[in-house]
Amino acid sequence: MTTRSFDLLMSAVEMVRHDTPEVFQATLKTNPYAGDVIRDFKSLTSMMEEPT
């Protein structure tokens, strides 16, 4: 079972999963929104509960 949003996320992962660490680091350094997005992501995911 899957959802449309999960499938879209997995599609995005597939597009970048073979990128080198250097590409990732360059993106973080040059994207002015990267810091805010990472901070928001960490904040939101820290609120998630473990499945029971």
Structural features, described:
- The protein has a domain at 19-52.
- It is 69% helix and 0% strand.
- The protein has three helices and no strands.
- The longest helix has 13 residues, at 4-16.
- The protein is extended, with a radius of gyration of 14 Å.
- The two termini are 19 Å apart.
Strand share of the residues?
Answer: under 5%
Shape: extended
Query: Which stretches of 5+ consecutive residues score pLDDT under 50?
Result: none
Helix-strand makeup class: mainly alpha
Quote the distance from N terminus to C terminus.
Answer: 19 Å
Main sheet specs = none
List keywords for this structure.
52 residues, mainly alpha, 3 helices
Describe what is shown at a glance:
This protein is mainly α. It has a domain at 19-52.
Topology at a glance:
Blueprint: H1 4-16, H2 21-30, H3 34-46
